[in-house]
Amino acid sequence: MDIVEHNRDAWNAEAEEGDSPWSQPASRTAIERARGGELSLILTPNKCVPDSWLGALKNKDVLGLASGGGQQVPLMAAAGARVTSFDNSDAQLELDRKVAEREQLEITFKRGDMADLSAFDDASFDMIFNPASTCFVADVRQVWLECIRVLRPGGRLMTGVMNPAYYLFGKDAHDGKAALVAKYSLPYADLTSLDDAELAALRKKRWPLEFSHTLEDLIGGQTDIGFQIVGFYEDKWSDEATPLNALMSTAMAICARKPG
Ligand SMILES: C[S@@+](CC[C@H](N)C(=O)[O-])C[C@H]1O[C@@H](n2cnc3c(N)ncnc32)[C@H](O)[C@@H]1O
């Protein structure tokens, strides 16, 4: 099946339903604060990205990668960055577009798959901001390859990723409907780890399909191609994963620099 098309439809549904925390447009107050240099951005559900990672954004070329939804992209634009919002979901991009219109912000929009950034020339951006989303892509190393290509020397990739251990237990355990018992081997993928009936149920609900990846691909995949890891923190997941949150952090944020 075509994962990119399935996940496009799934995220369109999520954005149109309107209750996903990842699809809540930034408030006027948050935009005003960003204009004044007070920027609160997230790569993972709860912790804010440290100011030291972001630096001064004014006049920087920033790629919001899989960052649609009306949140981080308009905030970075309000802080003075020249932002391109690249996302696979038409509806997530539309949310960014609406906030841009409301706040008279100039943002460039492009729809597509983050594993293929051929729409952009080499060395086009000073920074890539990629909130937790590589779990929707089969080959995360391909995403890192594209990121290092489109970054300028000295540019930074900031990415939120899931701790692969999150995927040991299954979706019912995440929301407390089943015990936290290891059920799947890693790396997990909805496509290959679930049985036919479970997969059909996910597809019927129009939920996005996910991949856990290995730590070797998530972190080693960056260092293998020359990225230098210059920052790292862990975070809890949002409420839906409450039982697991009591036991471990389930998300991680990585800041990587392209040498030069
Ligand atoms: C958890 S949300 C992050 C966006 C959120 N609004 C934010 O600002 O943090 C994940 C995003 O990844 C996007 N996405 C999923 N698969 C993608 C792909 N293959 N290429 C580009 N974007 C993708 C979704 O459309 C969605 O907007």
Describe this structure in words.
There is one protein chain. With 260 residues, the protein is an alpha/beta fold. It has one domain: Vaccinia Virus protein VP39 (Rossmann fold, 3-Layer(aba) Sandwich), CATH 3.40.50. Helix content is 34%, strand content 19%. The protein contains eleven helices and seven strands. It has a seven-stranded mixed beta sheet with strand order 3-2-1-4-5-7-6, sandwiched between helices. Helix 1 crosses helix 5, helix 2 (28-35) packs parallel to helix 4 and helix 6 (140-150) packs parallel to helix 10 (215-223). It starts with a helix and ends with a strand. S-adenosylmethionine (SAM) binds next to helix 1.
Strand arrangement, major sheet: 3-2-1-4-5-7-6
* Fourth CATH level, the homologous superfamily: Vaccinia Virus protein VP39
Radius of gyration: 18 Å
Distance between the termini: 40 Å
Just give the CATH class.
Alpha Beta
Outline the fold blueprint.
Blueprint: H1 3-17, H2 28-35, H3 51-54, E1 61-65, H4 72-78, E2 82-87, H5 90-103, E3 107-111, E4 125-130, H6 140-150, E5 151-162, H7 171-174, H8 190-193, H9 196-204, H10 215-223, E6 228-235, H11 242-245, E7 251-257
Parallel strand pairs: 1-2, 1-4, 2-3, 4-5
Antiparallel strand pairs: 5-7, 6-7
Helix pairs in contact: 1-5, 2-4, 6-10
The chain binds S-adenosylmethionine (SAM).
Give the key terms.
Rossmann fold; 11 helices; seven-stranded mixed sheet; 260 residues; alpha/beta
